[in-house]
């Protein structure tokens, strides 16, 4: 009886052979890079999704303020390639404030109706660069932009009106914003 217990205890305390350890190392070498890419992809996707939600909400908030003639008061936000003045410049700055991300990287375009009147459409569009947090997914998403567009009908007009204006687009293309 005692010899059978010793044999069982001895069998459970055995070390894995070299072949088994080597196989585990090869398996880890194959699985680890895939696991890391998956984890980094999830992190980047989460960050980009968060930025997209923030940009969408900021554009909607700014458009809502624009249709009730509350264009904001700030005209000194950083702009790229914009010659906007007056209410258009104020609405561009208000949009950047409402989005709350990096204002130098956020690009805004305001499309005002030719006839500024109640019931006409005001369009506010934004682009924000997709920037990866992790280095592994950068090759798949860098250079693209998060786009958001809000179209609303003017409810209240301002005596000074608003004109179409905008910054240089990140993608060099504002045709989607019309």
Encode the helix/strand succession as letters: HHHEEHEE
Low confidence ranges: none
Beta-strand content: 5-15%
Shape: elongated
SS-derived structural category: alpha+beta
Kindly state the percentage of residues in helix: 40-55%
Based on CA atoms alone, the radius of gyration comes out at 28 Å
Strand order of the largest sheet: 3-2-1-4
Give the biggest beta sheet.
4 strands, antiparallel
Total domain units: 1
What's the overall average pLDDT, rounded?
88
Number of helices, counting only DSSP H or I runs of 4 residues or more:
4
Number of strands: 4
- State the end-to-end CA separation: 88 Å
Description:
It is elongated and about 100 Å long. It has helices at 2-12, 18-67, 86-99, 138-141; strands spanning 107-111, 121-129, 145-153, 165-166. The protein has a four-stranded antiparallel β-sheet with strand order 3-2-1-4, covered by helices on one side. The N and C termini lie far apart (88 Å). The chain is built from four helices and four strands, in the order H-H-H-E-E-H-E-E. The protein is of the alpha+beta class and 178 residues long. The chain has one domain (28-166). The model has no long low-confidence stretch (mean pLDDT 88).
């Amino acid at each position: 009886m005692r010899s059978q217990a010793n044999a069982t205890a001895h069998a459970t305390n055995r070390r894995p052979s070299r072949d088994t350890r080597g196989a585990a190392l090869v398996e880890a070498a194959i699985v680890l890079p895939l696991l890391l890419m998956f984890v980094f992809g999830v992190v980047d996707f989460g960050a980009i999704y968060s930025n997209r939600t923030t940009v969408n909400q900021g554009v909607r908030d700014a458009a809502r303020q624009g249709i009730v003639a509350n264009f904001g008061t700030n005209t000194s936000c950083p702009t790229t390639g914009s010659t906007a003045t007056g209410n258009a410049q104020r609405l561009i700055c208000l949009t950047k404030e409402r989005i709350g991300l990096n204002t130098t990287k956020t690009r805004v375009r305001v499309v005002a109706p030719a006839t500024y009147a109640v019931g006409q459409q005001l369009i506010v569009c934004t682009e924000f660069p997709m920037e990866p947090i992790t280095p592994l997914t950068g090759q798949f998403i860098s250079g693209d932009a998060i786009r958001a567009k809000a179209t609303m009908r003017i409810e209240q007009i301002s005596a000074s009106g608003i004109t179409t204006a905008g910054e240089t687009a990140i993608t060099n293309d504002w045709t989607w914003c019309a």
